Amino acid sequence: MLAKLKPFLLHPFLPILAATLFIYSPLLSIPFRDSDQVVYFANTGPQHSLIDGLKQYDYSASRLYWKGDDMLFRPLLFVLQAFETYIFSYHYIFWNALNILLHLLVLFVFYNLLLRISPEKNFAALFCALFAFSKAPVGLVANTHLGGYLAGFALYLGTLTFFYSSIKNAGADNSSACLYGILGTFTVFFYELTLPYLMAASFFWVLKKRGKMSPQTLFWLLLPLISYISLYAFHLMRVQRPFYASSVDTPSILAIQNFISVPENMWYMTKEFLRDIFPNPRIFKILFAGTTLGLFYPGLLWKPSLGLIQKVYPLLILFFYTGALALLRATFWRDYYPYFFHLFLALAFYSWISFPKLTSGRRKIISIIMLLLITWNAASVWQYYRQIGEGYFPIHHYFNRLNHFVDAHRGEPGFSFQILKTDKELDPPYELKEGYPDGSEEVFTKTASEILYSRYYTTESPKYRLQWREGDFSI
Questions:
Q1: 96-109: per-residue pLDDT in tens?
Q2: pLDDT at 330 over 50
């Protein structure tokens, strides 16, 4: 029995899996904190049924409150949210757990993608851990409503495994192109910004295989583009203001300052990545960075197993991603943006290193240095995540007790409740407005509990009137 389990127990990814589950566990108690998530619940209606949720697949067109960003079309993101709402409802711990599992899926696919680039199990695991145990992932993983982004990233990395395999394989690759096209199509319907990245990969694929490519292979490479454009045309017929974006922070998407900000933002994100990886104080940053770069330097500029395409592609994606964010969000910073950028920065570093040139002694020294960095980062990130969890504990305790109350009574005939004298710190109010932000409709407010439990919450003759006292609800 142990002999059969030995390959699994010794798998280099297993420590990453176990450590990630432990380090990310404090995030389980973070309640619904983003206004987009709470407003989504308001848009699905009081029943929060699966049908109500699936009707929101084209959210920009169907939403009632705070319409905007009509250009966005991410149907699978909202199909996933519909199932999460139906299965998990107001139990945010399950939403967070799913996000952590999806993050693990991204890490596993990323690890396997690194192996396709260079079959170095230990170094692939080290680079994967370097990203996993930085602060970059927290913004995305802790946003309960953005699990679809994680699913999309995992699918996108999966498509790249077929891309890299095909670039290295001189033979026929119709089956790889088929899987690439199918996975890529699912990817763009989770997160449409991956479409230009996939088309760049398709372009390089055609460039590499020119004169040796069948029409079927070309069809599969273009399938994500064909599928998205076809359904996006249907989306454009449904929205009222297709080029209106409520959260763009400049007068025009094509404003000159957006283009100017691209290199500045790329450098800013790179500095954040290095700041996450290298520990304080500054002397340690210089020591670790200098030693690591010095050891890697002999192999930095040439990798015999990979050509220029595989080296340039990650850098091109970093430029595309930063450029797209700069054009669509001039203020630029959202706490979940670094996730994808840092992931591809790690991929770019890995792609430019020729591991076969490293001697056995250098490999051991590099592995020790990276393990020290990863251990330091893991301890720091665990402390950081624990502080986040502790900061949200009062709100978590409040909604956890409310969840227990609703779960215990919702089966009663005519069950309804109202909370008297809600605490704005624990149960914050959210502004709602029908239509677009610049419309004439009146703004009104509802508390988080009114929205999340709208099926049972009423101010007109409720069966139970609750009051929060001394850490629990009293009737």
A1: 999 999 999 999 99
A2: no
Quick one: which of 394, 405, 411, 412 has its CA closest to 452? Answer: 405
Specify the DSSP class assigned to residue 446.
E
- What 3-state class would DSSP assign to 469? strand
- Asked if residues 350 and 296 have their Cβ atoms less than 8 Å apart, the reply is no
**pLDDT, average across residues 297-322:** 68
Q: Is the pTM of this model over 0.85?
A: yes
Write the CA distances from 74 to 149, 194, 463, integer angstroms: 10, 11, 40
- H/E stretch holding 182: helix 174-190
As a whole number of angstroms, the distance between CA 308 and CA 405 comes to: 60
pLDDT the model gives residue 409: 92
**Is residue 317 within 8 Å of 160, Cβ to Cβ?**
no
Lowest mean pLDDT among 128-142, 277-291, 388-402, 433-447: 277-291
Rounded to whole angstroms, the Cα distance separating 339 from 348 reads 14
3-state secondary structure 97-118: HHHHHHHHHHHHHHHHHHHHHC
pLDDT averaged over the chain?
Answer: 82
- Dihedral angle of Cα 94, 26, 149, 146, to the nearest 10 degrees: 60
Around Cβ 389, how many Cβ atoms within 10 Å? Answer: 17
- Our CA angle for 341, 345, 346, nearest 5°, is 120
Q: What is the largest CA-CA distance in the chain?
A: 77
- Taking the C-alpha atoms of residue 31 and residue 398, their distance in angstroms, rounded to an integer, is 10
Total count of residues recorded for the chain: 475
Q: Which of 130, 145, 178, 44 is nearest to 454 (CA)?
A: 44
Q: How many CB atoms lie within 10 A of CB 404?
A: 12
Other Cβ atoms closer than 10 A to 68: 18
How far is it, in rounded angstroms, from Cα 414 to Cα 153?
Answer: 44
Q: Please, which residues have CB within 8 angstroms of residue 286's CB and are 6 or more apart in sequence?
A: none
